[in-house]
């Protein structure tokens, strides 16, 4: 039996064993999706703490319960740091981070190191799928040459595809299973194999003509968001000068049933995608002597938002005869977006650092982040304070920086002396509110 026919048969009968490399926000939900679809799954990670938690049936991701982990292990899910077990799986899915270097360029070391690690344990008939976000050409230029070093012929001995992760933490409307899965592959046989396995765990798969199309699709999705957020943030600054409520503008505009998608202003962008992914395309475009002008402009606008908010606050405080120095400030939310516990590249944290530079006395409340170590000198670990009337009234200023849904905004309004609202939670015509 040909390698392709063997793995297709195993996929159809759900006897294929799935290996997930990287058990973070992407890999862990994907592993559970395959477990729930009836497959045996082995999770691989270099972080011993994650492996121990899984063995103890404990979750380390807020959106995944310990009960989810317990149920998965009952069904045979196992986690390990022993990469030699790659030889025991039929499908290898790589979900490792692809961050930026300190110079803002693609950092592929986690992806490349993972491929170099697994290549020694590959066997004929396996599918290798890359889910890590990267620039077009990475899979063909960086990954496949390493896999071929062991003498395997891609498309015949082993199969390779690229299927970008599309996780949206905090979005209760969509899960790993219900988010359509883009798949681009090295050859028609590779695509057939990839579709056959993903379609068992994901409700809808969307095949595309090449790996590069799939790689570019993920970048396009996040750059689209970056640019539209940059646009609405620029509109926010213009509306502020014209004494127009940008949130009312967006609310009115979205009543148009076609040609408009609402985006909302805030203190900037954060997370593992929007601040990072556009740099991958900008870097690659330079190899073709192209400048990504829209992308660069949107990045600049979004990065400037924290400073603009600070300037707006200082101006308003001055009108009230106050200064930021020694002002007691309570920040509501420090995660990069609402309803998550992730602080990577959080614009709220960047805003807090600016307040610290101006000698404000800072505390925070975030229902998803119990403790956090800010970059403040000599201040160490801080704990999220309890949100109650007494605590709120103790502060000179409350800043709505991340608009979690499970915050009692009415309680804040009733007890705060002054509110800086960066998310449009309150009316712009209230003297108690500074909209920025």
Which spans of ≥5 residues are poorly predicted at pLDDT below 50?
Answer: none
Sheet of most strands: 8 strands, mixed
Strand order of the largest sheet: 3-2-1-4-5-6-7-8
What's the CATH class of the largest domain, please? Alpha Beta
Reported CATH architecture of the largest domain:
3-Layer(aba) Sandwich
Q: Supply the number of helical segments.
A: 14
CATH superfamily of the largest domain: NAD(P)-binding Rossmann-like Domain
Terminal Cα separation, in Å? 65 Å
Sequence of secondary-structure elements: HEHEHHEEHEHEEHEHHHHEHEEEHEHEE
What general outline do the C-alpha atoms trace?
Answer: elongated
Q: Do you know the CATH topology of the largest domain?
A: Rossmann fold
Assign a percent range to the helix content.
25-40%
Please report the total strand number as a whole number.
15
Provide the number of structural domains.
2
The SS-based structural class is alpha/beta
What is the CA-based Rg, rounded?
24 Å
If you average the pLDDT, what whole number results?
A: 95
Percent range for β-strand residues: 5-15%
Q: What can you tell me about this protein's structure?
A:
There is one protein chain. The radius of gyration is 24 Å and the shape is elongated. The chain contains 14 helices and 15 strands. With 436 residues, the protein is an alpha/beta fold. The protein has an eight-stranded mixed sheet, sandwiched between helices. Strands 10-9-13-14-15 form a five-stranded parallel sheet, with helices on one face. The longest helix has 31 residues, at 211-241. Helix 8 runs parallel beside helix 11 (293-319). The protein has two domains: 3-209, Rossmann fold; 246-435, NAD(P)-binding Rossmann-like Domain (Rossmann fold, 3-Layer(aba) Sandwich). It has helices spanning 3-13, 27-36, 48-55, 66-74, 109-118, 138-148, 188-201, 211-241, 246-253, 277-286, 293-319, 347-357, 389-393, 409-415, and strands spanning 17-21, 40-44, 78-80, 91-94, 127-130, 159-162, 181-185, 205-207, 328-332, 361-365, 371-373, 381-383, 397-400, 419-421, 433-435. The N and C termini lie far apart (65 Å).
């Amino acid at each position: 039996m040909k390698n392709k026919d063997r793995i297709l048969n195993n996929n159809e009968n759900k006897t294929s064993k799935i290996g997930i490399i990287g058990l973070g926000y992407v890999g862990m939900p994907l592993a559970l999706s395959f477990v729930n679809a009836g497959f045996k799954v082995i999770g691989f990670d270099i972080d011993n703490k994650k492996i121990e938690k899984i063995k103890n049936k404990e979750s380390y991701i807020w959106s995944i319960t310990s009960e989810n982990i317990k149920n998965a292990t009952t069904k045979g899910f196992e986690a390990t740091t022993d990469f030699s077990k790659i030889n025991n799986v039929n499908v290898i899915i790589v979900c490792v981070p692809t961050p930026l270097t300190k110079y803002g360029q693609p950092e592929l070391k986690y992806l490349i190191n993972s491929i170099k690690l697994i290549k020694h344990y590959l066997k004929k008939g396996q599918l290798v799928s890359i889910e890590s976000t990267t620039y077009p050409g990475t899979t063909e230029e960086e990954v496949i040459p390493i896999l071929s070093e062991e003498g395997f012929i891609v498309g015949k001995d082993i199969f390779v595809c690229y299927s970008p992760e599309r996780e949206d933490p905090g979005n209760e409307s969509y899960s790993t299973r219900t988010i359509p899965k883009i798949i681009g592959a090295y050859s028609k046989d590779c695509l057939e194999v990839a579709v056959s396995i993903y379609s068992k765990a994901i409700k809808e798969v969307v095949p595309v003509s090449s790996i590069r199309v799939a790689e570019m699709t993920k970048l396009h999705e996040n750059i689209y968001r970056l640019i539209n957020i940059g646009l609405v943030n620029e509109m926010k600054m213009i509306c502020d000068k014209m004494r127009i409520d940008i949130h009312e503008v967006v609310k009115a505009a979205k009543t148009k049933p076609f040609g408009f998608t609402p985006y909302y202003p805030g203190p900037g962008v954060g997370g593992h995608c929007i601040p990072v992914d556009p740099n991958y395309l900008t870097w690659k475009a330079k190899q073709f002597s192209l400048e990504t002008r829209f992308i660069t402009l949107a990045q600049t606008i979004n990065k400037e938002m924290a400073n603009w908010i600070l300037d707006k606050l200082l101006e308003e405080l001055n009108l009230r005869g106050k200064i930021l120095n020694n002002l007691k400030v309570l920040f509501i939310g420090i995660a990069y977006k609402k309803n998550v516990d992730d602080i990577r590249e959080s614009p709220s944290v960047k805003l807090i650092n600016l307040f610290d530079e101006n000698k404000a006395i800072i505390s925070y409340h975030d229902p998803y982040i119990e403790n956090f170590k800010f970059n403040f000198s000599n201040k160490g670990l801080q704990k999220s304070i309890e949100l109650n009337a007494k605590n709120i009234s103790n502060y000179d200023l409350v800043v709505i920086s991340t608009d979690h849904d499970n915050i009692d905004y009415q309680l804040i309004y009733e007890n705060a002396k002054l509110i800086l609202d960066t998310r449009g939670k309150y009316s712009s015509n209230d003297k108690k509110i500074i909209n920025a």
